[in-house]
Design a protein that fits this description.
Layout: H1 19-30, H2 34-42, H3 59-62, H4 82-87, H5 101-104, E1 113-118, E2 124-127, H6 128-132, E3 138-145, E4 150-160, H7 161-168, E5 176-181, E6 201-205, H8 206-209, E7 215-220, E8 223-224, E9 234-236, E10 249-255, H9 262-266, E11 290-293, E12 299-301, H10 309-312
Parallel strand pairs: 1-10, 4-11
Antiparallel strand pairs: 1-2, 3-4, 4-7, 5-6, 5-10, 7-8, 7-9, 11-12
């Protein structure tokens, strides 16, 4: 018998607001007059979210959805409405505003391969559809905290990153995992800006990659991943600021040196390698003590490690002299 021990950030399932209820509430608020209209404009919502089209070949993934929810991963607040979640996004390959959903529809997600290489005993290069068949998909409810001090709560569907690590069978000298996006410049107008260090790259330690929370997501809200969220496959590491959760992954490399990462290369004094959430360590240009919950606009206190300290604090107990929270 499997026994789940409730963490400090969990609540019983019956207190999590259903997506359908949120949709009804959103429709009601959109009709309540000037106040609701102002809120809609704030989130870039006028007559709804730009259509999140899936490629024709997504039937393989769609047939596996919705996946069963893993009840070990719950939240202490309600889910963000799907419309807000889909309309307020960072995806710099498609623009620097938050309203990139329309532009992101230019992302071509088929054909799509994911290459796993580097210091491993089992190198892989798999078509995305073949990759997802190797793992049992599940749904998890995760917090998402942006370095810009706003937050969402999202139902991701995917599989634990540690399962892919196990499949790759890294060699003992592999101490880091490097991720690289596969967005093509021809599809992405934002990549024409020469001052950004394209392609987008990110990294974790091998210990972080093996942590139970590190997750490779292929869907949201029980559906195929919308392109603006980083289809067909993205990383979700909920104890870190959102820029660590790289989108549209095409290569995962096991290496013995800390990899260069996109935002660290761009401005290391503001966006470091570790990027763990900490309310007591401000960004150089704003406080991190509070976060704005997108669907309500409420200002709530930020939690250390975004509320996941019980699961991840031990990863850093022996690390000295590092800016773990920058």
């Amino acid at each position: 018998m499997t026994v789940f021990r409730r963490r400090g950030w969990e609540i019983p399932e019956h207190r999590a607001t259903a997506e359908s209820a949120f949709s009804r509430r959103g429709a009601l608020m959109m009709g309540l007059g000037a106040g609701a209209a102002g809120a809609a404009a704030y989130y870039g919502l006028s007559d709804g979210v730009a259509p999140a089209r899936a490629e024709a070949a997504d039937e393989v993934l769609a047939a596996l959805l919705p996946a069963k929810r893993n009840e070990a991963f719950k939240l202490d607040r309600a889910l963000t409405p799907e419309k807000i979640n889909g309309a307020y996004n960072n995806f710099y390959e498609f623009g620097t505003s938050k309203y990139v959903a329309s532009a992101a529809q230019g992302l071509k997600t088929r054909p799509w391969t994911v290459k796993v290489d580097g210091l491993v005993n089992n190198s892989l290069e798999l078509d995305f559809d073949d990759l997802i068949k190797k793992f049992a998909l599940e749904e998890r409810l995760y917090r998402h905290r942006c370095v810009e001090a706003w937050s969402m709560t999202i139902p991701w569907t995917g599989f634990q990153l540690s399962d892919l690590v196990k499949l790759a069978d890294p060699k003992p000298e592999a101490t880091y995992v490097r991720f690289e996006t596969g967005v093509a410049k021809s599809d992405a107008p934002g990549m024409r800006t020469s001052w950004y260090p394209w392609p987008y790259t990110e990294g974790l330690t091998i210990a972080e990659a093996r942590n139970e929370l590190a997750f490779l997501a292929v869907g949201t809200y029980g559906k195929v991943m919308p392109k603006q969220h980083g289809a067909p496959i993205r990383l979700a590491v909920p104890w870190k600021y959102g820029f660590k959760s790289i989108k549209s992954i095409s290569r995962i490399s096991f290496v013995d040196k800390r990899p260069d990462t996109f935002w660290e290369a761009l401005q290391s004094s503001e966006y470091g390698f570790w990027a763990n959430v900490n309310p007591d360590v401000p960004h150089p240009r704003w406080s991190q003590a509070y976060e704005r919950v997108l669907d309500t606009g409420a200002q709530v206190p930020t939690q250390i490690y975004n509320g996941y300290g019980e699961q991840v604090a031990g990863l850093y107990k022996d690390i000295k002299g590092e800016a773990l929270f920058m």
